[in-house]
Amino acid sequence: MENQNPLQNGALEGAAGNGGRSGDGSALIFLGTGCSSAVPNAMCLIQPSDPPCQVCSQSLSIPPDRNPNYREQVLRWFTFHKIPRVDSIVLTHEHADAILGLDDIRAIQPHSPTNDIDPTAIYLTRHSMDSIATKFPYLVQKKLREGQEVRRVAQLDWKIIEEHYDKPFVASGLKFFPLPVMHGEDYLCLGYLFGEKCKVAYISDVSRFPSNTEYVISKNGAGQLDLLILDCLYKKGSFNVHLCLPQTLEAIKRICPKRALLIGMTHEFDHHKDNEFLMEWSEREGIHIQLARDGLRVPIDL
Description:
Blueprint: E1 10-11, E2 18-22, E3 25-29, H1 42-46, H2 54-57, H3 75-80, E4 88-90, H4 96-99, E5 120-125, H5 126-135, H6 137-140, E6 156-161, E7 169-171, E8 174-182, E9 188-194, E10 200-203, H7 211-217, E11 227-231, H8 245-255, E12 259-263, H9 271-285, E13 288-291, E14 297-299
Parallel strand pairs: 1-4, 4-5, 5-6, 10-11, 11-12, 12-13
Antiparallel strand pairs: 1-2, 2-3, 3-14, 7-8, 8-9, 9-10
């Protein structure tokens, strides 16, 4: 979440988005997943030294295709939008695309060879916690075995949440309501509903909406959303674990938000060409819908 006087900065997952508050109001900023390396170093750019680090600062002036030291795309948007830190993380599920960057959080934490720093809060389900503990035990274990050497890793404060929409939790001062959805018929994933003044639903990985979840976010149910951020994998056909454009548009018609932004698109989508199609659809259906993009900043009063 964007925050120029940092109060909160919650990343919903690698692929999609951050939101936040500043003295001028709230905004959502859409980010790509980026790479898993640490060159340039994130801390050198979001909290630059005087004089600045020469290697890392090159990434701000030399295009990545001509800069062998540029290996993290997400940094261009943190620096562009002046996001100084990550205060909390909210996970949707434990698939690779949502969790494999967790250790990279150390790149934007204060440097400590002994890991003696305040951890970053991370909110997740028990199922995700159990999976991560198996995949990344060193991120979860707090005590060293006798003779084990200290190694610098991301410091995370694991906070278990319940998967039901009537069990909200607060991350960095913002209340989140879990939205259970099917990500394939054998896997439950979470989206999230948040915002008090304006209602936003973020649903990144979904193939089907359970009726209770759809009711919570529908105009004809619990109330109209101001913004729906929704999964959309392919332009045609269907897929077993994600919505594709035909199903995405049908879901948006049923849910009827004031505005929708699509995420998770493959290279089949052309941003300019397909947004022209979506603009025509919007005018016909009365619901504004467009493709999101990396670096997109959406002011919204949360």
